[in-house]
Amino acid sequence: MAATKEAALEHGPDGSHEEGGDLGDEAFELFTAAQAHEEGGDLDEAFALYERIEALALGQSPAGAGERRDPRWKFAELVASDEPPLHVLAATAANCAGGLFLDEGEYTEARSWFQRSLQWWDAAVMARLNLGNIEREHGNPEVAISLYSKIAEQEQEWASQRNEFTAKSDADAQAAQDSWISNWLEHPLRSCGQQAAYLIALMHHQWGRYDAAVPYLQKYPVKWRIGPAVWKCVGKSSEADPGASLEVDQTCPVRLVKGALNDELLAALQHAFRPSSTFWDGTNYCDGAYFSFWYEIDRKPSNLVEQAIQELLSHLGRDDIVGAEWWVHSRPSGRNLGHQLHFDTEENSLGGENETILHPAVSSVVYLTGAATGAGPTVVFDQRVQDVTPGKRAFVSNPVDGSFLTFPGDRLHGVLPGRPPKPGKRTRQAETKLRDPTSEPHRLTLLVGFWTREVQKIGKRRRLGPCAPFPRASRGVDWPSEIDTIPLSDESKASTSGSSIVPLPVHRVPEGQAWEAVPPGPHPPQYETLPDGLDQHFFVADHAEFRRRLLSTNAGNDEDDDDVDDAEANIDVEEENNDDDASGDGASSAK
């Protein structure tokens, strides 16, 4: 969702507006009505009302449509107005209108409205952030950094003006505190500034500008970052990455192979989970709630994924696996910010005073699509949930369609964003609309956790929750039919023998270079936390943070650090025989 109405809804004032007299009152009423229509799904009516607000402002502007920007950006001038001026409403309405087009993939129209928002008011930082995101995802990343940098500059400029103004007298300070600008400008400015600084730091890492990223990381209480040696592995071939050892090492705990799935099964999986598949809407995947399905391996496969699991299992070289937990992920290639670092756990075992953290014996990734379109790599750290110091080793696997990645199931792992277009190399996707968003290339992966205990029996199971039973197709639930089993030819059955497995190189980062300390900045951190929704744990305050977040996220704890430390003493971490090398055939490894 674009940065559109959040500030207006959450921080916007209740009352009328003075600029333009009755026009200000009318504009605010129109804006309130437009927000209600947008919330109710009547987007056409919402857009019409946003247009009417701009028309009112144009009629009030002495310069007319040719020059509509209101130059008032000085704190003293803005605080003199008791309520948001008409041009602020016009800028906010234009940003909301742009958000409607952005949500539909209409990038040309969205960009036009965001630019109009800034023409009304140069402090319309939500519009500037939206423009930056369009450029980062579809256009010129260098332009994106320029837009993000402008937000950071404006936040600093605004803080300076505010401090100068409020230092004059207590009355001036109280006027600033009570003014509408604290809600309509300062909250959005701080939120957008927090996001912009993070995105600048992340993009600098993607481009290899590690020193340039440091001043932006110092805006947060960050002490560690994923090391440059790890980022250098993103998207590079073996020959192009002298900083890591890329030979196929049979003792490596992280292994990537090709040939674990036969071509018929691979093609069927790619089709079953294509972007237009009913699976995504049927499971409400876009809502972001975590769910997975459980398969008892001694049962006959009832769907396509269970067929695939039987083939994958034969390459683990283990006879103690009793079940497999599986789920899928689909992300637009080259557009997303990666997937946060995390531990694979059994969520229902968490919670309570003496909770147990359970990990699968083997974690695995089947790369289905996205290798040719800049899909991000999987990174695995030699770091467990009980560790409070950074892992010394890291392993990076760049996607290869049809390949099978395995690693010990108790290790910290995630997905780094793919390498962006080279600076200065512009794409034209942002100039038009994606005619069919489902045809956009995706990084599609099948994730399987192999367990040596029946964790599906822990706690109460939900229809779409952790280790849920796979549903049957019915009149109300038709998506399971997308994943029906397929008949396999004798040739396909024979194509995944041990002799057909081809080991692929995994980037092995030199020991001690997985994480790097971030030097302290010249000033205290500007923000207390990294931005919610963007933080992927690539930059962290300390490595005990992973345990704390695991507790608070899965068990619903909101304790402060001291309380969390006390709670951690009661955690029992049980490992599912997560040996560094528990595979039997050398073709893949235990997770």
Characterization of this structure:
InterPro entries: TPR-like_helical_dom_sf (IPR011990), TPR_rpt (IPR019734). Residues 7-20, 428-439 have a biased composition (Basic and acidic residues). The chain is α+β, with helices and mostly antiparallel strands and 591 residues long. It has helices at residues 6-11, 22-39, 43-60, 75-79, 86-103, 107-120, 125-138, 141-166, 170-178, 181-207, 210-217, 228-231, 263-272, 278-282, 304-313, 490-494, 545-555, 561-568; strands at residues 224-226, 255-258, 293-296, 323-332, 339-342, 356-358, 362-369, 378-381, 394-397, 403-408, 413-415, 442-451, 502-504, 507-509, 515-517, 539-540, 572-574. Helices cover 37% and strands 13% of the residues. The strands form four sheets. The protein has a seven-stranded antiparallel beta sheet, covered by helices on one side. α3 runs antiparallel to α5 (86-103), α6 (107-120) runs antiparallel to α7 (125-138) and α13 crosses α15. The relative contact order is 0.14. Mean pLDDT is 81; it is low at 5-20, 238-247, 554-573 and 581-591.
What is the subunit arrangement here?
single chain
- Shape field: globular
In the CATH hierarchy, the third-tier topology of one domain is known as Jelly Rolls
Q: Which CATH top level class of one domain fits? A: Mainly Beta
What is the strand tally? 17
pLDDT average, as an integer?
81
Based on helices, strands and strand pairing, what is the structural class?
A: alpha+beta
Span of the ends, CA to CA:
35 Å
What's the total helix number?
18
Q: What composes the largest sheet?
A: 7 strands, antiparallel
Q: Provide the CATH architecture of one domain.
A: Sandwich
The proportion of residues in beta strands is 5-15%
Low-confidence stretches: 5-20, 238-247, 554-573, 581-591
Strands in their spatial order, largest beta sheet = 3-4-12-7-10-2-13
Helical content, roughly?
25-40%
Radius of gyration: 26 Å
InterPro entries: TPR-like_helical_dom_sf, TPR_rpt
